[in-house]
Every structure is written in structure tokens, then in C-alpha cells.
Amino acid sequence: MRPESKLPLAQRLAEGTLTLGEAFAFMSGLYFRGKLAYAMRFAPDHAYVITPTRGLLPPQTPLTSAIVREFAKVDVAADDHRYRRPLTRSLRELTDALTPDAQVVLLGSIATGKYVDVLKKSLGPRLHFPIDFVGRGDMSRGGLMLRSAAAGVELAYTAFGSDVVRHGARPAKLPKAAEAEARVMRTMGHSASK
Length: 194
Known about the structure:
The protein has 194 residues and is mainly α. It is built from eight helices and five strands. Helix 3 packs parallel to helix 7 and helix 5 runs parallel beside helix 6 (113-123).
């Protein structure tokens, strides 16, 4: 965010041409790159990013330095009204636009209340998650989504219900798939890091 930075990403932020998805992928690394690649592959017109202060925004939303600073001031916590109120407002708008049989798939953490509790309250039985997320950490979920996007194979989903398992034994490590990740990242206009 330094004005004198020569990094292309910093220059695009200064110009107002950097998108929310690109910025979060840079800051979050593999996990967000996986979420973004997966969402763009299977729901490009219906993908949203949960933000700290502005609710749900499309990943194509242009960012400014002021918005990044605004995000940095707020902790993503279910009990923080600066996060929860805009998200609840966005969820109300989303719910009003959904068809009765629509499913909303959470690609974020399924083990913490900061996402699940807020989303379940608004979306109820429409809220789903990839069943293969159970027991996986952030990086493993990111790798899983990159591989799924590269292969063009959507993951199986399950609804958040009282009987659904959200915490479980860690599954076996994913096999190396650097080429699949690189291929997906090239199609998104990014270079993959190994």
C-alpha cells in the first residue's frame, strides 16, 4: 500500500483496477486462490466474498486503499456488529433473490461460528458445504478446491444440520498437484506459487 511501491499489484491498487478476489488471493495465499478458482469455475455469476465491513461482495469488485484500510480495522467475529450487520444485510438481499430450491455453498471455514452461525441464521437449510472439508485445514481445502476446479469436477455438498459432522479426523494428505494448480492459476491470470 506504499505509494512508492513498484509491485504491479500495488500499482493496480493505486489505480483502482485491483479486484477484491485478486487482493484476497494475494493476502491469503493458497486457501483463497482455491476458493476463488472453484467459485469461478462452478458459479462465476453467483460467487461472493465475505468481507469484514461490507457484507457479501462479488470477487470482481474493484478495491481502493481506503477500503483495504477499512477492512483491516475490523475483526471477522460473529459478535462484532461492524462485521455482522453488513453481512446480515447482504444475506437478506441474497435470500430475497434466491429461488425456493436454491443452495448456498460456503467455501470458508465450516468449523467456526464467525461464518456458519451468521449464515445459518439467515439461510437456514439452504446453507451447504463440501463434505470433503470435514477434518481438513485451510491449505488442504485450498488444494482440494484447486484440483476440483482444474478437473472440472464439482465437490459433493451437504446441508448444515443438527446431525451433520463439521469436525472430524484429518483425511489423508492430498497428492501433489502443482501442474493442476498452475493450470488453474494461468486461466485466472495469476502465477501459481509452489
